[in-house]
Amino acid sequence: MAPLKPYWKQPSHPDVQDVVVSGADFMTKSLSKVTVPPFGLFAKFEFPPCDVADKATYATVQMGKDEHLNLNSDLLYINHSCEPSLHFDMGSMRIVAGPKGLRPGDELTFFYPSTEWDMAQPFDCFCGKPTCKRVISGAKDMPFELLKGLWLNDHIHDLLEEQASSQQYQLGSVPGNDGGVRSAQLPEAVLNGRAEKLNGTDANVDTQGLGLLRRGVTSREMSGEMGGDTTVRV
Ligand SMILES: [Zn+2]
């Protein structure tokens, strides 16, 4: 992440975390100082230093449908990756290793949409992993295909289910309703894939690349297949 002037005593987690500042742009990242078995405990979210936040910011983690915490520690320097080394498990308020476990020197990362439903500013991901999603936003605006099979917190699963059922309702009752336009940030490959799928089912949708964007097919619409219903009704 971009540099940030810490207002807490550093290092906050000296036994487990090394914060590294590198490059001309002074980007920060975190490395593990410990060995942790798969799904083993790396650190806990403790209050303090954490405290409850009124709303989501760059320095918060979402811990429930409407609840956020301020990290107030070096844990803020754990970057996003599409193949993360850590899971932020907000149900147990623990940070645990991913399925590969952790070794000293491994970069500490987690998958931002696994906790965050809404993100003010989507960003381009350069994690370099084979499964990189390229554009990262809150889970609300991620195409469902890109979240499938990934570890997500319960509040994200619950919100995705609510989104899917509300979308099905909208498709059935408000013909042509575009909803919010978020698709401009979606990876092109996803849009193309979606365009192909929509092509056979929806004669009113302009399926020619950017035309699809301009009409504003939302990620909600595009995630309408979540419940296994592949028919798009207009
Ligand atoms: Zn990535």
Question: How would you portray this structure in words?
Answer:
The chain has 234 residues and is an alpha+beta fold. The protein has 2 domains: 1-110, SET domain (Beta-clip-like), CATH 2.170.270; 119-226, no CATH class. The chain has 5 helices and 12 strands. It has helices at residues 144-147, 154-173, 188-199, 210-215, 219-222; strands at 17-22, 27-32, 41-44, 51-53, 60-64, 67-70, 79-80, 86-89, 94-97, 109-110, 123-124, 135-136. The strands form 5 sheets. The protein has a 3-stranded antiparallel β-sheet with strand order 3-9-8, with no helix packed on it. A 3-stranded antiparallel β-sheet has the order 4-6-5. Strand 5 and strand 6 (67-70) form a beta hairpin. 30% of the residues are buried. Mean pLDDT is 80; it is low at 179-234. Zinc ion binds next to loops.
- Identify the CATH class of the largest domain: Mainly Beta
CATH architecture of the largest domain: Beta Complex
Helix- and strand-based class? alpha+beta
Low-confidence stretches: 179-234
- Number of separate domains: 2
The CATH superfamily of the largest domain is known as SET domain
Strands of the biggest beta sheet: in what spatial order?
A: 3-9-8
SSE string, helices as H and strands as E: EEEEEEEEEEEEHHHHH
Cofactors, ions and other ligands in the entry: zinc ion
Domain Post-SET: 121-137
InterPro entries: Flavunoidine_N-MTase (IPR053201), Post-SET_dom (IPR003616), SET_dom_sf (IPR046341)
Protein name: Post-SET domain-containing protein
GO biological process, one term: methylation
